[in-house]
Request: fold
Amino acid sequence: MSVSRKERRRQELLRQRRRRRLLIGIPAVIIVLLLGFLIYQRFLRPIEGVQEFGPQQSGHDQNVVIEATGLPPVGGVHHPTPLNCGVYREPVELRHAVHSLEHGAIWLSYHPDLPAEQVAALEDYADNYTLVAPFPELESPIVATAWGLQLQVEDVSDPDLQRFILRYKGQGPEAGAACAGTGTPLS
Reply:
């Protein structure tokens, strides 16, 4: 039985179509898997060492006093005026910094004895929703704080620090509100 030229052409076109589907389909599947992995790494994989403090009381009180402890506060009643985000070389007022956390800011606090090169690396994170300031009572060299969350690290190069910032910046109960009010940051 011989196959007609028309049938051979049809079979060749089918083979080409299958080959094209494989050449497009396999890379597409690889790209989808890679994107899924990257999304998992950035947004879903737990960050080791993050302390979750649960829901935080929120509210404004002009006369609130927040007592300094060995760690920055992660939320609570605070002053009605937020702290301008940026770099500070002196400790900041806790009652204003907490308001910035409510707006979605990340607060990178460091022990005053932290080496200058690490302080400089922390300062590179400063932007419209990140504040960097020394914290004399700090129990750890570096503490990253978001509303209701905290991560203590020994070194600015810890990859979990960057993951914390990427994941939780902009996640406060009033996310998107300006991180601006009082204070004069260096940058």
